[in-house]
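Quick entry between incubations.
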Amino acid sequence: MNPITPIINGLKITLKHMFMKPVTLQYPTERPKVAKRYRGLHALNVSHDKAKCVACYLCPTVCPAKCITVEAAEDANHDKYASVYEIDMLRCIFCGYCVEACPVDAVKMTEEFELANYNRQDFIYSKERLLVK
Amino acid sequence: MVNLTIDGKQVTAPKDATIYDAAKLNGIKIPILCHDKKLKPFGACRMCLVEVEQMKGRQIPACTTPVTEGMIIQTATPEIVKARELVLELLLLNHPLDCPVCDKAGDCDLQNLTYDYKVDSNRFTDLKFQHEIDYNNPLIERDMNRCVLCGKCVRICDEIVGYGALTFIDRGIETKIGCEFEDGLNCEFCGSCISVCPVGSLLARPFKHKARFWALTKHESVCGYCGTGCRLTLGVKDNKVLTTIYDENQGFHKGQLCVRGRFGYQFINSKKRLTTPLIKKNGRLIESTWDEALDLVAGRLNRGNSVAALAAPRLTNEELALFKKLLVENVGTKNFDHAAGYAHAALTEGFSRSFGATASSASILDIQKSDLLLVIKTDSYETHPVVGFEVNMAVKNKGVKLSIISDKRGKLSKLPHAQTLVHRPGSEVAVLNAIAWTLLDEKLVAGSASLIAGYADLEKSLSGFSAEAVAAQCGISAADIKKLASEYAAAEKALIIFPAGQAYSGHNADLATAAANLAFLTGKYDKEGCGVLCLSEKNNSQGAVDMGFFAQDGGLNGLQILDSCAEGTVKTLFIAGENPLTSYPNRSKVKAALEAVEFLIVSELFLTETAAMADVVLPVCSFAEKDGTFTSTDRRVQYFKQAIRKSVLIKTDYEVFSSLIARLGGVAPATPAVLFSEIADKTAGYQGMTHVSLLKEGAFAAAVTTPKFIVPQAAAPFTAETGKLSLVTGSALYHNGTLSQYGEGPMHVCPENYVELSRTDAALYKIAEGDLVTVSSSSGSLQLKAKITPRMPAGVVFSPYHFSDAPINTIWSGAPVTSVTVSK
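Done. Structure below.
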């Protein structure tokens, strides 16, 4: 093969890309568009000003990373609710099994992906932080 | 045996088996909801429908149909599966399907069957029930909306517990399980109904929402309260005992438990547990290290005879044996005892003389095999409820006759055809002697009796105990005594049962010998369903006796040790697990003794009032945190394994004693298992036992008996001083010793001490239920809540001894009966 041909072919591709839209996203000034089924930070759904969660323990049971801690308690009406609901984001593998297991649609996964923090303790999301605002 | 064919498989089954039993026996699973092997067949749920060829292919319930020769049974034809699916659909029609919030999920028979039969839709529609949920009591929640009307709770409460708190109410679609007058549940809270409920209708409130069933690890253990020796499954999560789990295949009692066993486990993970050794400095207990504490203790133990020890019969056999070894070989003292020195006298002095063995001659298994039960004190039910269940079942299911000699009536007196002879308190021995006299007088004595040593002496000594003479003293008619004697003699098999314990000082050696004499006179011993059964109070009372942990060969006994502490001859006292300040008689004397002793060492789970007086407090383990063996009251030796890890800074009693032995220059066996093999070699009846061999069911240590008539000394008849009442002490159903005060379950239902008095006395002194009354004796006075019950005879009051807040020993000095005044 003519030794020049590959070079010309390469330059063709280079030239073509010069007139295309750039692939690089200028994060953080530019934001990515997250897919609908993206599995980001968890959130606890709210209904009637209360978390929908009934503390059935199915999410900690199904969780392969064992990152969910639930403690159930009885409220004044003898109803079961989660007095503690914590997710350790350092352990979470964002598999979404918890959402799948939930029988009452109490937990969902949001498009939130910026989970960096300075302290390890800050990665443990308490019930307060997880509630849908 | 009967031959039959199930699902094409040729099988055999016993003649009295049902189809369900036969299938189960041969490994064929038939689904059930309403059947329990302990209960009578009922046939309510229709899940166990099978087809029998001989019955023209009709669908019949397997749990109520007895097998017949040549039966050809199909258990899973498409028609049957369809019928079962319909049953489930109809049950699920009204069932709330709130599995996510129901604690039964994971252990629910209805849930499992629904899953097995893939019933995921319903062809029918109907409203769900809207029954009010019963939250009236602190232990059992009743949600009738989830109920499938299997009737198991009704039947267990009636057939086994004998309480009858629950029943079917209303008819048809409105049928529900309810209590009397549709009121909240108010029973003795044994929780048997919870254990058999196939759905989440009955739930344990102390465990409510604590964990899901599948998150629990199950650890088999032995109950740490009374001497019955019930096996127990502890449900553990995150190193915490959260509940007890029912296992119908466990032990002689088939998983049946009482309120203490089922709900009293919270002391194991109590926040009040001691976590570090404490040493008294400048009058205050200061946290310390094990090295410092053990060095201090070892330095004070090295003083021979001036050292004494009291151990609780809640320690394991291995610990008691090691403690004895430490005291005898390394310390050089014989002054050690358990259970106040008198609560074991029935065994160590009574049975040892009469039977030649420090053990009962009958087992709990004999109860249902007997023809007549002679129970001394109705308290046998309160002290040992699961033994009480056996009595219930014997009377209700097996038609065993029940005769009771007691100073008050009780639950046992309510059993069908139970005959209760209520005598004046303190005259049990006289009544037994009068029965013996009647046997001799009416020539009802077995031929072999006269060959037993001591017969002539007994005959002579009983002359003063004619039925008439005793009747005049004890308040039972002579005719009743004679009738009881002739019934006892006429029964082919008869068993005498009496409780022993720290609150039953009258149940002493004399009572044991008097009871043994009756058995010897009529030849009712050493046979199935015969003998005398002493119900020892605590989980290892019999073990403490078998290990020889009681005063022998001139050693001081429990009460003498305290006297010597006060006199100053005992300078160091090591109390392992006992709480004499509350449980020993005469509180002021005990207190003076503990104050007087130079050095007091207490090893305990909690900072009890006794531990608070100590110079060194050593935090030790509960039964759930250690390995070992307990010997139940009928000498069943049972091995249990550690269920949870102990916290870092506590030690088992075994570790404490072995480090002390090492510090005193001795060598202790490395592990409890090694020591147990030594114990097994030298303890009568334990030969051949090892931890491994005892793992599953435990084994009976046989007692070799040589009968001998011993003349029992009947106490002079007790008459209360004029204008005073007779106080008898005892155990409450919800408590055992002082440990149950740290179990939340028992404290929910019986939180404080009380005095029980008759309606007559209540009317006389104008006392109403719940009034705070002052009970005074010559030794002190105490404020107690009044409880008015029809079971107490006039002139007699009863109070239990478990409570540190209002300890009965401020007014009780150890006498079987005390004269007291009761005033508002």
